[in-house]
Design goal:
By secondary structure, the protein is an alpha+beta fold. The chain is built from five helices and 16 strands. The chain has a five-stranded antiparallel sheet with strand order 1-2-3-4-5, covered by helices on one side. Strands 6-11-13-15-14 form a five-stranded mixed beta barrel. Strands 7-8 form a two-stranded antiparallel sheet. Keywords: Acetylation, Hydrolase, Magnesium, Metal-binding.
Length: 330
């Protein structure tokens, strides 16, 4: 009930269950299931999210930012992680070494993961020698939002209207749609076309090095060259598309863990204002959710399921049939 809402004001907590394979088309990952729809590497491809009991959810709004919000029923605490460590949930959008630019669709109902499209073409990042695709597991922290109407005091630029990005530097290659728990180590500020685009540096708590990596300096010592490669990647990844190098705030220097956590907290506050409609400028973002009691965009489980079924039906239609449905208001 609403009286039991935690800091993220979730109405209910998802119980921890063992990861298992559901079917070729329904994978269960940690607390959540992913349901792919459409053909991969096509404009119609979407990955929808469901809770462990099969209820349709938004990975943007319904997955808690703080992992502690869903640890009450945890069987065993993470190995070798400090008890006072703040852990965050991360939604993996792009697996390491892959090139397709996958992202949470913030402007679609239920906010599935889709491949970004620009000028009618699917987006892929180029291989920048000596790198292959994305050099980390790349994704976002749920329940965060970089407010485009807020000018950051440090970067002097507004937010980019997206959840805050995460570069997970562990050794495991994750899967698109996987929800993992991460420990924050630092942060980098990319200035992308005049907008602040924070890049959180984090480590999967299941990684063998997680207990040894506790700061950005630890990364510098234990993974020599990794931070320099990250700066180089973000500076140059758009150059093959004919664009100039990106600019980085703070002279391309990483800020420490404490700074990063404060940035995350601020973007969490911006998100709260968005979904509670205290912040009116959302630039087309869909705030539909199934768990936020005080949000005017909260929908019932049945309504969320109906949204998914309607979207699935539209995907099966031919282009002229979709146009007819759109004209009829379906």
């Amino acid at each position: 009930m609403c009286s039991a809402i935690r800091a993220a004001f979730l109405c209910s907590q998802f119980s921890r269950k063992t990861t298992s394979v559901f079917s070729p088309h329904l994978r269960k990952m940690v607390h959540y299931q992913t349901e792919p729809r459409g053909r991969a590497n096509s404009p119609d491809y979407r990955i929808y999210f469901k809770s462990s009991d099969g209820k349709c959810i938004s990975p943007f709004h319904d997955i808690p930012l703080y992992a502690a919000d869903q640890q009450q029923e945890s069987d065993v605490p993470p190995k070798k992680i400090k008890t006072n460590e703040i852990l965050f949930n991360m939604v993996v959008e792009v697996p390491r070494w892959s090139n397709a630019k996958m992202e949470i669709a913030t402007k679609e109902p239920l906010n599935p993961i889709k491949q970004d499209v620009k000028n009618g073409k699917l987006r892929y990042v180029a291989n920048i020698f000596p790198h292959k695709g994305y050099i980390w597991n790349y994704g976002a922290l749920p329940q965060t939002w970089e407010d485009p109407s807020h000018t950051d005091q440090e970067t002097k630029c507004c937010g980019d209207n997206d959840p805050i990005d995460v570069c997970e530097i562990g050794s495991k290659v994750c899967a698109t749609g996987q929800v993992i728990q991460v420990k924050v180590l630092g942060i980098l500020a990319l200035i992308d076309e005049g907008e602040t685009d924070w890049k959180v540096i984090a480590i999967n708590i299941e990684d063998p090095d997680a207990s040894s990596l506790n700061s950005i300096e630890d990364v510098r010592k234990m993974k020599p060259g990794h931070l320099e490669a990250t700066v180089d990647w973000f500076k140059t990844y758009k150059v093959p598309d004919g664009k100039p190098e990106n600019r980085l705030a703070f002279g391309g220097q990483f800020k420490d863990k404490d700074f990063a956590v404060e940035v995350i907290k601020a973007t969490h506050s911006f998100w709260k204002a968005l979904v509670l409609r205290k912040k009116m400028k959302g630039e087309g973002i869909i705030c539909q959710n199934s768990s936020l009691c005080d949000s005017p965009f909260r929908c019932s489980d049945a309504e969320a399921h109906a949204v998914l079924q309607a979207l699935v039906r539209r995907q099966t239609l031919k282009p002229h049939e979709r146009h007819a449905c759109a004209s009829a208001g379906d």
